[in-house]
């Protein structure tokens, strides 16, 4: 059954767990997440970006989600719009049946230029008004995702910019967060604490200086009733990086957000953890390996199935680590 993000976050807070929110673009991703949730008895958040609707086609994405709900009637499903860039994108998601939307006003509508507080609070409040009138939840974002090592946003997923970000926007300020929640009435808030989108987050295992889980604690102490969202939270599994490179790929050495750091964040109010890159890497690694080991195969179901199974294992591991397994 479909539920709203707010219902799920409130329940997660009562029970001290966090929810991975996986991005979906195709059938195999949807099936991997649903099969994993079913296996470990977890609710799910399926999130689609505007890019996902463009990739699959809006009706295709909408019907894939409907199919997921029909195939797994016991799994509670939140259908969430990831990184809405303006009011129109969020409104179209609502018309499409999403039960939750993210209005990302931390960046201007080009999704590259850091926006002013006034712009962000104004446009987010506007979306909250419309969405809440229809019983739909809203996630906002305060602060810009970017590396505390380099000051750069993640590069390869359309959120990139060459501009260096200043320290103030790279780290969400607890006081400003309290003001933002008051000004907008968002249900949950994405914060900047040193994570960034894509595979290239950290050049070595992240220390407390570049991944600031203590900042989450400070924000949570100031706004304990607001559910905190961590973006850019892929762990960039070493073994999948190796598999990709062992079977003809060429990815650079890189480090993601350790699962233990996320688990620590969950203790301090993180309820939604956005993950896209990990499933992309598992899928690519599994397909590269399958094709390289089965050179005569030309049935795509075989390698798509390998991709689905690889993604499913990651989903299961995150459901268990974040504590939502058993809460479906
Ligand atoms: O934060 C972005 C997600 O990784 C989705 O990326 O806009 O390429 O679908 P996308
Ligand atoms: P990753 O690139 O770390 O998977 O982050 C995804 C994300 O934040 C989607 O909104
Ligand atoms: Zn994100």
Automatic annotation (TrEMBL):
Catalyzes the aldol condensation of dihydroxyacetone phosphate (DHAP or glycerone-phosphate) with glyceraldehyde 3-phosphate (G3P) to form fructose 1,6-bisphosphate (FBP) in gluconeogenesis and the reverse reaction in glycolysis. Belongs to the class II fructose-bisphosphate aldolase family. The gene is fba. Its cofactor is Zn(2+). CDD domains: TBP_aldolase_IIB. One of its GO terms (molecular function) is fructose-bisphosphate aldolase activity. One is catalytic and the other provides a structural contribution. Pfam families: F_bP_aldolase (PF01116). The keyword Metal-binding applies. It catalyses: beta-D-fructose 1,6-bisphosphate = D-glyceraldehyde 3-phosphate + dihydroxyacetone phosphate. NCBIfam families: cbbA, FruBisAldo_II_B. It comes from Thiomicrorhabdus lithotrophica. The lineage of its organism: Bacteria, Pseudomonadati, Pseudomonadota, Gammaproteobacteria, Thiotrichales. Its EC number is 4.1.2.13. Signal peptide: none annotated. InterPro entries: Aldolase_TIM, Class_II_FBP_aldolase, FBA_II, Fruct_bisP_Calv. Pathway: Carbohydrate degradation; glycolysis; D-glyceraldehyde 3-phosphate and glycerone phosphate from D-glucose: step 4/4. The keyword RNA-binding does not apply. Keywords: Glycolysis, Lyase, Metal-binding, Zinc. This is Fructose-1,6-bisphosphate aldolase.
């Amino acid at each position: 059954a479909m539920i709203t993000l707010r219902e799920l976050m409130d329940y997660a807070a009562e029970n001290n767990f966090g929810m991975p929110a996986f991005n979906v673009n195709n059938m195999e991703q949807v099936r991997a997440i649903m099969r994993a949730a079913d296996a470990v008895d977890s609710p799910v958040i399926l999130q689609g970006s505007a890019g996902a609707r463009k990739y699959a086609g809006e009706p295709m994405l909408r019907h894939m989600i409907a199919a997921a709900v029909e195939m797994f009637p016991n799994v509670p499903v939140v259908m969430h719009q990831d990184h809405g860039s303006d009011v129109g994108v969020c409104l179209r998601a609502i018309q499409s049946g999403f039960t939750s939307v993210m209005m990302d006003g931390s960046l201007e509508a080009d999704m590259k230029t850091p926006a002013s507080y006034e712009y962000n609070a104004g446009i987010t409040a506007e979306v909250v008004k419309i969405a809440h009138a229809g019983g739909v939840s809203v996630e906002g974002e305060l602060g810009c995702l970017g590396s505390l090592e380099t000051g750069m946003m993640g590069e390869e997923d359309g959120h990139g910019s060459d501009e260096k970000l200043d320290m103030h926007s790279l780290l969400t300020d607890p006081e400003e967060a309290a003001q933002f929640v008051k000004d907008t009435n968002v249900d949950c808030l994405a914060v900047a604490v040193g994570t960034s989108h894509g595979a290239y987050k950290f050049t070595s295992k992240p220390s407390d200086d570049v991944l600031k889980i203590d900042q989450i604690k400070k924000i949570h102490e100031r706004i304990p009733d607001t559910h905190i969202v961590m973006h850019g939270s892929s762990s960039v599994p070493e073994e999948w990086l190796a598999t990709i490179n062992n079977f003809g790929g060429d990815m650079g050495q890189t480090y993601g957000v350790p699962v233990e750091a996320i688990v620590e964040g969950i203790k301090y109010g993180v309820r939604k953890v956005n993950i896209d890159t990990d499933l992309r890497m598992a899928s690519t690694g599994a397909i590269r390996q399958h094709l390289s080991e089965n050179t005569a195969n030309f049935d795509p179901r075989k390698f798509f199935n390998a991709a689905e199974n690889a993604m499913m294992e990651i989903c299961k591991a995150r459901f268990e680590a974040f504590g939502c397994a058993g809460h479906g």
